[in-house]
Design goal:
This protein is of the alpha+beta class. Helix content is 27%, strand content 29%. The protein is elongated, with a radius of gyration of 28 Å.
Length: 175
């Protein structure tokens, strides 16, 4: 355990620490006494590259602090709340789309067939059935004989889905 205390990590201070096997040098970017962690900013090979190292103070073997950097600590930029809300909505929509790809109450084989088909064609679940291209339904046990379409003019689409289904079932080892 380390006996390093919060006053030893003023923001902007040059620091050199030894952890469980490496030496880390940089500038203190932040210190959190609640979690007992220090965030060290290390300059990269170019002005646009840098590393941030988050270290638990308890695991530091030695600490050497230098003088504060000659420049004042820059204020944090303002946060665009609308942009944050938009990013959250986009992430939520992506998560819901990903969750919709998982069938509820279906076998592993059914999920494998769905995953294989959805790589090449748009698919979604309709209870236990897989709907492909919004025209063809594949019902359990998800074989060629279980493909159907409601419209007789979609014969070419049905044949295409059957051809892809045959290849994908063979590829994943179900036939």
């Amino acid at each position: 355990m380390s006996d390093v205390a919060a006053p030893d990590f003023p923001v902007g201070c040059a620091v050199s620490v030894v952890t469980q096997g490496e030496q880390v040098e940089g500038e203190v970017f932040a210190f959190d006494s609640a979690s007992d962690t220090v965030l060290i900013h290390q300059r990269g090979s170019t002005p646009f590259h840098s590393n941030l190292r988050l270290l638990k103070v308890a695991y530091l073997k030695s600490v050497q602090t230098g003088a504060l950097a000659g420049r004042p600590v820059a204020p944090l930029p303002t946060v665009n709340a609308q942009r944050c809300k938009d990013r959250e909505a986009k992430a939520l929509q992506a998560a819901q789309a990903e969750a919709a790809k998982t069938g509820v109450g279906v076998s592993n084989e059914a999920q494998q067939v769905f995953d294989a088909l959805s790589k090449t064609m748009p698919c979604h679940w309709k209870q236990q059935n897989i709907v492909i291209l919004n025209e063809v339904e594949l019902s359990p046990p998800y074989g060629l004989d279980n493909c159907s379409t409601e419209h007789s003019h979609n014969v070419t689409t049905l044949e295409r889905v059957k051809k892809v289904l045959t290849a994908e079932r063979r590829r994943i080892g179900l036939d």
